[in-house]
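Margin note from the TA: students keep mixing up input and output lines. Inputs are the sequences; the output is the structure of the whole complex. Example:
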Amino acid sequence: MTANHPLFTRRDLLARLGVSAAALPFVTNLPGMARALNPVAANARKRRMVVIFTPNGVVPKDFWPDTEGPLEKLKACLEPLTPFKDQLLTLHGVCDKVRGDGDAHMRGMGCLLTGVELFPGNIQGGSDTPAGWAKGHSIDQEIRNHLQKDQATRTRFGSLEFGVMVPERADTWTRMVYTGGNKPVAPVDNPYQMFKKLYGQAKDRAAVASVLDGVAGDLKTLTGKLGTEDRRLLQEHADMVREMEREIREQAKDEGRKAGHPVPQLEPGVRADNDQMPKLSRMQMDLLVAGMVADFARVFSFQYTNSVGMARMRWLGVTEGHHELSHEPDSNTAAMDKLVKINNWFAGEIAYLLKRLRETPEPGGQGSLLDNTLLVWTNELGKGSSHTLDDIPFVLMGGGLDFKMGRALKYKKVPHNRLLMALAHGFGDEVKSFGNPNFCKDGPLTGLRG
Amino acid sequence: MPPLRAAWLFILGVMIWVTPGLKAQETAGAGDALFAKQCASCHGKQGEGTKRHGKPLGGERSLAQLTKLIQETMPEGQPGSLSPEEAQAVAAHVFDRFYSPTAQERNAPARVSVVRLTVPQFRNAVADIIAGFRGHPGWSSERGLKGDYFKSRNYRKEDLVVERVDPVVDFDWGTEPPVQGIDAKQFAVRHRGSIRPPVTGEYQFIVRTEHATRLFVNDTKNPVIDAWVKSGADSEYSGTVFLVGGRIYPIRLEMSKAKQGVDDSNKKEQKAKPAAPAMLHLEWIPPKGFRQVVPELCLATNGSPEQLVLSTPFPPDDRSLGWERGSTISKAWYQAVVQATVEASAWVRERADELAGTKPDAADRKAKLRQFGKHFAERAWRRPLEAAEEKFLLDTVFASQSEPDAGIQRLVLATLQSPAFLYQCVGNNEGPRAVAERLAWTLWDSIPDMELSKAAAENRLSTPEQVRKQAERMVADPRGQAKLMGFFRHWLRLDQATELSKNAKRFPGFDPALADSLRQSLELQVREVVLGPKPDFRRLLTGDQVLVDERMAAFYGADLPTPPGFHPAILPPEGRAGILTHPFMMANLAYNEETSPIHRGVFIAKSLLGVAMRPPEAVAPLAADLHPSLSTRERVILQTQPVACSTCHSIVNPLGFALEGFDAVGKPRTTDRDKPVLTAGEYLARDGRSVRFSGPGELGAFLAGSPEAHDAFIQHLFHHLAQQPERAFGRGMPDDLRAHFQSNQFDIRKLAAEIATRTANPPRQVAAQPNPETRNPR
């Protein structure tokens, strides 16, 4: 959801928190803190997953490695990921076989992480029948729920859904995360809003603490002007103010001791408009890394624009919208060059994230954040001009699930449901099927661990 | 346990004694004489103590405990010399006159206390600070919502076919078009206007339609219900929103029978297909309420600006004296205040540009926000800022943050947590601004609006006439109406949480839907009198008409109203007593199956005639099923025969008996357990006159004309509005107000304005013991 300005609305925020403001006690111990005191849990290795979405398919010949096996020189679309070649696993031949209502962009998005059909509905694409939301929950939410069930892996949010320039409209093209059938989750594409979600309570407490002294002073002045009977009321009030000051101080100490990580500083006033996309992308990534360090969540998604995304990457010298370019035939080499540039830019952003993850040590654990995180970069289409749901671009990165990286794998048109299952199994969530069971008969995708 | 016995056990809670001494019903003469003779020499005539025995009489013992204590220990030197009857009489006298907490509260010198804002005042005041920037919503005389019908899938102006007023949104169009000139296969409908919820709490809104829909309540950007993506076979959507009762919010309901997204509809193909059915229903479940179509009464066709609603839950205010007042501070209250101010500050921050009339990239943005901050604080504190305050709020709090948005957020926090906001009239207790502030708390439970503040600033609130003029304007305002209606809801026990239900076998058809109709009917009927052209108090207690809808007509036997909705009807029997005999009152003041003359009598005695009462000690009741041959009247007489009961029930019972012609659901009856119903009753009036009446009509006529009833009504209304003891405003207040009421045709609205006028300049409070630390050196 993209606001016209960097501010955001209360209801958005609350809806995403899944609570009403009323339900949030002002001074409280945050959930998930208990784990820090649990030595067994603290010693267990954390595993995380980040799903990254970029739209409109890829230019296959400039994306996929030609041969199976150890990764050689990366092609133009993936070139910025070269420093992380040993951390990459490309999966060619994984196909979104879910059919039914909705056009390819809608199914490509709505079925990508859910592996299940869309409900019939009123959203009409360029062809095919109209459709509504997906019929089931998405794999990231499946894994989130699995982790949240266990005190040892439970985190404050469980999952965090980031976005970059996601249009301000809720429809099948703009949502890929679902908590259940007909229950899409809106990604938070406003970094200030995400910041508030992550750090709002602490900031509110600090703001309250800053005014309490003045309040106490006013009460004292006023009390002196009143008769004995009336004075009692204000004195009781003043006692409460002092007590609140003390409680906030203690809570801040407590949190500082447990979390021990710095709150990221965001550049103020960055507006949600097309040309700010590179800046917004980095701000969101920095928040994501900070969220990992603070262990706010173990599952993340990161959605650039939307299915049929219209970004105009003028900063690359590309003035046409991404989606319209993606419809051009292969023979239009100028368009193909631009599409490669666009994909190359996305890869560069992901390289930035990988770099940040690699240089950040795992708090209280071994290695870097990257060693304990699996990133899944994907797309709603295999190729823009054909709208195919075959060969969905799946690029896995990082050591989170102990897959054997640094390779190119080629499968023979396997349903992507099997990959989704493999992700769940990687987290110890041994689902028998995920999404439409007809596509799950052969079990989780094999070959990932080498 | 059989239900009847359960009912009789329940009656324990309502057997009553009359507190002697306050009214004409003096019942403890013997105790009075004994006390004067045997006790006063040590304890003082008023139990205030003497030199010999300095401690005033007062404590927490119950009457029974006190009786035992006196019996066993008094008088000094001769304990046990009093007979049990004498001990009881003396104990009752001591208890009622000065011992009990109630008596102590009563005997304390009345004064206007410093009070904090009550919870409704806090919520209203914060909302009205914002409304001061955006405009206060109106409430048009047209009930219902504006319905716009479009022949296209969206709301294109040129496709608007019909614009009309729909009293409620409750349509089953089937495969027909909703209005002429529209294709049933593709259309869009939009309803808009304002909604005024009756009470504060969570409202669950429900929209039923097979098609795309969106509902916006208050928040005009983020829908409460968003089913614009039609997905699957669901045709019912719901969403919850917290609303403060009596306030006015914008509402918009959109419905589109069409595909969204790419419009590739093939005209020929479409023509061939039959239209799918369409319905559109807007329903809600109010707090503790019953699911129903959002009623016409709560809808208006005018637009209104978004309100700041604080959803932070608060602990309830003190109501121990029968009216709400901000007389206590608790940790729960304070934490709620902090949480609510955080909520408010975040809300303001998000809308700071709009409220300050600036834009994110405006060059003078910071200056504009600063100016807004100053206005915000001045509205919140109901006065101009002193130089030091302005310096603190703007130069310290606002300027402490590098981002002006964050500065505004801090400023709002500091302003709303300050005692200058949280207490009534502190640092502002004299002069025209204090008058304005008191008027606003009294009549609106909120802060002064622009007009009132302007009148104060221009010194137009110095004469009673000027004050009265403002007060009369304020009573007529939606905020004034809301506070007045709040009084009647409380007075008539419409706000009681208990569910109104009856034995289904005995009263088939008395279901929650009917109970809700009764509630609405009574509220509408009161509203018609109180807010209508003739707000005469006497009209409340006289008249045969009842507002009846389809459900009530079917149940009580009246012609079905056309068009559907509430219409006046005459229900049998003849000679009713206005709202007193309204089916809601009769059903509410009754048991599951049987009537309760005691409940009814207590209501009349206490709420209508102002007889002060307190709950009785536990007395084992007679089991009703042991007396199957007795009518209710006979059972109640037998039940309350003992002397200890009869002194008080002799007042209550005959009042209640006059309404025995209505059964437990308020239907007329002439027999009870095969015995003819007797509706004769009587009341010993304050002037010593014994008033006899037979049936509700005569009872109502007596009440409508009784000075006691007028006094009681004035006192109840006074306390609801001013939230300070009436006695604190001088001994002459009750007589003055009664005279005003009588000479103004018992005009309820004028009375409210008069109460506000007369309390706007309270007697000056003198600091009893000035605090030496802060006394001004002179």
